[in-house]
Specification:
The complex is a heterodimer of chains A (285) and B (375).
Chain A (H helix, E strand, L loop, with lengths): L6 H28 L3 E3 L2 E3 L5 H7 L2 H34 L3 H12 L6 H12 L4 H8 L11 H25 L3 H9 L4 H12 L1 H16 L3 H5 L8 H10 L4 H27 L2 H6 L1
Antiparallel strand pairs in A: 1-2
Chain B lengths: L1 H32 L5 E8 L5 H11 L1 E8 L2 H9 L8 E5 H9 L18 H4 L5 E2 L2 E2 L2 E13 L5 H4 L14 E4 L2 H11 L10 H14 L3 E5 L1 H9 L5 E6 H9 L4 E4 L5 E10 L6 H12 L1 H8 L11 H10 L1 H7 L8 H6 L3 E3 L8 H13 L1
Parallel strand pairs in B: 1-2, 1-3, 7-8, 7-9, 11-12
Antiparallel strand pairs in B: 3-11, 4-5, 6-9, 6-10, 6-11
Chain lengths: 285, 375
């Protein structure tokens, strides 16, 4: 049934539409147009030339950075999901209501401080003469080089995404029908088996969405790979800055950015499809 | 009753309008009335150039308030200019290699050489390349510095650091940092492979530079921006750095870090910052006055000691003022009458300008840098 568009309805839906147009569709359209511009003598000229796409896609460095970035973001999503699950599980099923509220509050607190500041403070922990190595030194271990490694980048990625992943997992676990768990126990299903056969499948949508958010956040992140990873290996975000830093090549940077947006859309689409796969069937029954 | 209410409403609305108009107009009126309100002068520059330690005196003397827009890197600067309407920036500070691009794009006004104390400059800087085009002056060099080997004084001696070969030292594996910009790094590699003019090299020499550079890759601990370079040198995470010089280590040194820069035996590079007047500036006279001030002996001495990052200055009389004001800093930077000072190094041919590659495209160099980083 179609309803006529009322002024009342528009009042509430228009701001969202305007916001979307202004801050998403127009910039995206501009980015697409920009990727066909050309650069002569440091000056960008409006043009319609596929040269930037051909050049960027023809560069081994680009595909190398692409592979690195996908691998790093995928690892971060897997790691964050695995690290977050016991935590969100415990908060959901083992804590009292008031303790859970406190736990949620504590998960929100990291967002009070700028991510850049938090990443910079990790340098103090991870550097060769840093806090971690000093403590290891008391036990006669190390020093280990940790800063400027992919491992340090991963630490930064966790700083960025772990609290959010825990929160998202938490909200899906909280809404699991507890009678299902009781039923599993009544049917003599072990605790661990209940987790894998009942809890995780029931919370699948939330768990996948949490991992997806982690992927989105880390895929485009510039701060961790630069300030903890030492800019080595090159990620796509670093490649964008490299591209703009020499010869005013914004159109080529636009190609990288659009490839990243395309990748994220594809990943998000696949993840959502996976998350809801089989559910519609269930609902129809 | 009805009548009264209407009247009351009308009156109150009228009063409201009058009052608010008066309130809104007050700042305008007072701004007109008070001639003491300073004129705003916009400056596009690297961080530090419009900070109080440099501009406070000029601002007070001329009733000016600088409105800085800081950039990091010449491409960033060109981007900001090209995206702003003409006349947005009254004064533009630019690295020498970008002046030609500014000029070619018509972003800067022509300067009259007679307006400035060019006679006080060292002869090398009076006809500074890039400042002049077809006998016309478009920009004036105001400060410069050298790029060599930056090193941690606990880890290396000055003698060890006196060659670019030190970057390959096994004890520095994973401890050599790059300032993440191809031009100074590859220029230094070009000096190391024996090119007299590091940026004017033929294909064979360029291949040799690439080959030599790639052998350095296993030694590298990271590629750092401005902030990352500071912190990794400061906390000893990197023990040697390519592509930088005293403009970074000088600041750290002042704050007690054990780092220094040295110009190695293969020679060093020179960066140079130049002032121009933005095309279409409505305050070109005031902008001219500023450039006169900062290139005068007094302004030059200030510029040499800039809190953000120190630099050498091209004005001989500025050297004299600095020697009188702050002999320690004059000595530290090599701006004294002693043999081996900064100008002697230039005259001995130990310093080459950082510039854009002449026989290759800038893009070729940049692409190789990306490739090197990914190697």
């Amino acid at each position: 049934m179609r309803r006529a568009i009322s002024l009342y309805g528009l009042t509430f839906s228009l701001p969202l539409l305007v916001w979307q147009l202004l801050f998403f569709v127009f910039p995206l359209a501009f980015l697409v147009a920009l990727s066909f511009w050309t650069v002569k003598n440091f000056t960008m000229r409006p043009d319609f030339d596929p040269v930037n796409w051909v050049t960027m896609f023809g560069k081994p460095v680009f595909w190398q950075a692409y592979g690195t970035t996908v691998a790093l973001a995928a690892s971060a999503s897997a790691l964050a999901s695995v690290l977050a699950f016991p935590c969100s599980y415990a908060i959901t099923f083992k804590l009292s209501d008031s303790a859970r509220r406190w736990a949620i509050f504590l998960m929100v607190i990291p967002f009070f401080t700028s991510y850049l500041v938090r990443v910079y403070s990790w340098q103090i922990f991870l550097s060769d003469a840093g806090i971690v190595n000093v403590i290891l030194g008391w036990f006669g271990l190390g020093p280990y080089s940790m800063l400027n490694t992919p491992g340090a980048t991963m630490v930064g990625y966790m700083t960025l995404s772990l609290p959010l992943v825990i929160l998202l997992q938490l909200f899906s676990l909280v809404f699991i029908d507890r009678t299902l768990i009781e039923a599993a126990h009544n049917m003599r299903c072990g605790r661990l088996r209940t987790v894998f056969e009942v809890v995780i499948p029931s919370a699948r949508v939330g768990l996948v969405i949490a991992a997806l958010f982690c992927f989105i956040l880390t895929f485009g992140d510039f701060v961790s790979p630069v300030y903890l990873g030492g800019g080595d290996p090159t990620t796509l975000s670093i490649l964008i800055t490299d591209t703009t830093k020499s010869g005013q090549q914004w159109p080529r940077a636009a190609v990288i950015a659009l490839t990243m947006i395309g990748t994220l859309l594809a990943v998000a689409f696949l993840a959502v499809r996976f998350a809801y796969a089989g559910q519609a069937k269930g609902a129809r029954k | 009753m009805q009548q009264t209410r209407t009247t009351a409403q009308t009156v109150s609305r009228r009063t409201f309008l009058t009052t608010s108009a008066a309130v809104l107009a007050t700042p305008m009126l007072s701004r007109r009335a008070l001639a003491a309100d300073p004129t705003e002068l916009t400056m596009l520059a690297w961080y530090g150039h419009a900070e109080p330690d440099i501009v406070a005196e000029f601002e007070a003397e001329n009733n000016v308030k600088f409105v800085p827009k800081y950039y990091t890197g010449g491409d960033n600067m060109l981007g900001l200019i090209s995206q702003s309407p003409a006349g947005t920036f009254d004064v533009i500070l630019s690295d020498a290699e970008y002046v030609q691009a500014l000029n070619a794009a018509g972003y800067v006004e022509e300067l009259d050489p007679a307006d400035y104390a060019l006679d006080d400059y060292f002869p090398e800087f009076q006809q500074f390349p890039g400042n002049w085009q077809d006998g016309k002056l478009f920009s004036l060099v105001t400060r410069f510095g050298f790029l060599g080997v930056a090193y941690n004084t606990d880890a290396l001696t000055e003698a060890e650091a006196a060659s670019y070969d030190v970057f390959w030292d096994p004890k520095l594996t994973g401890k050599v940092g790059h300032f993440d910009w191809h031009l100074p790094n590859l220029g230094q590699m070009s000096l190391l492979t024996g090119n007299k003019i590091p940026y004017d090299i033929d294909e064979a020499a360029w291949e040799a530079v690439k080959e030599k550079t790639l052998t350095l890759r296993p030694q590298i601990g990271g590629f750092f921006d401005y902030g990352g370079t500071f912190s990794s040198l400061n906390d000893g995470q990197m023990l040697a750095f390519a592509g930088i010089g005293d403009w970074i280590t000088g600041v750290l040194e002042k704050n007690g870090a054990k780092v220094k820069s040295v110009i190695p035996e293969q020679g060093g590079l020179q960066w140079s910052e130049c002032f121009s007047i933005g095309k279409g500036s409505a305050k070109a006279d005031l902008a001219k006055k500023w450039i006169q001030y900062i290139t005068s002996a007094k302004g030059q001495a200030k510029s040499a000691q800039m809190a953000a990052y120190p630099a050498l200055i091209p004005n001989q009389k500025g050297w004299e003022v600095l020697q009188a004001e702050n002999p320690a800093e004059a000595k530290r930077q090599g701006m004294t009458k002693d043999a081996g000072n900064a100008i002697d190094m230039i005259r001995a041919g130990r310093i080459q300008y950082r510039q854009w590659p002449i026989q290759q495209d800038l893009e070729t160099w940049n692409d190789f840098w990306s490739e090197y980083k990914g190697a």
